[in-house]
Specification:
The chain is an alpha/beta fold. The chain is 26% helix and 28% strand. Strands 1, 2, 3, 4, 5 and 6 form a six-stranded mixed beta sheet that branches. The protein starts with a strand and ends in a 16-residue tail after the last helix.
């Protein structure tokens, strides 16, 4: 599985529309096997989709996201888990082992995923 997480410093970016960096990671055998950072422009939908497709991302994890971008991501057959928060490394380690988002990584007041 290959996923991308929007990052801001060492945390998951709280707002997708303001993020500029993705951490792309591959999960194999419940561990992160490879990872790298890449930049993207969230204000250019074509650029965003191209970056995800070029890197063969099949799951995007982010904080809050507008419906316009969420729909665009879904239209390109990329799974979306939104309204996620916290330290990026801690989230990735947790997600790799369980393939679920633990409550500690859910934004306050948000109890379901898109």
């Amino acid at each position: 599985m290959k996923l991308a997480v929007t990052v801001w410093g060492n945390r998951i970016s709280p707002v997708f529309d303001a993020a500029r960096t993705l951490l792309v990671a591959e999960i194999e055998n419940k561990k992160i096997s490879r990872q790298f950072y890449t930049s993207f422009d969230p204000q250019s939908p074509a650029d965003m989709v191209n970056v995800l497709k070029k890197n063969q991302v099949n799951l995007l994890v982010c904080g809050a996201i507008s419906n316009t971008f969420a729909d665009l991501i879904a239209d390109h057959d990329i799974q979306l888990i939104s309204f996620v928060t916290g330290n990026t490394r801690q989230f990735l380690d947790s997600f790799a082992g369980s393939r679920t988002v633990k409550k500690i990584h859910m934004m306050p007041g948000f109890n379901h995923r898109r």
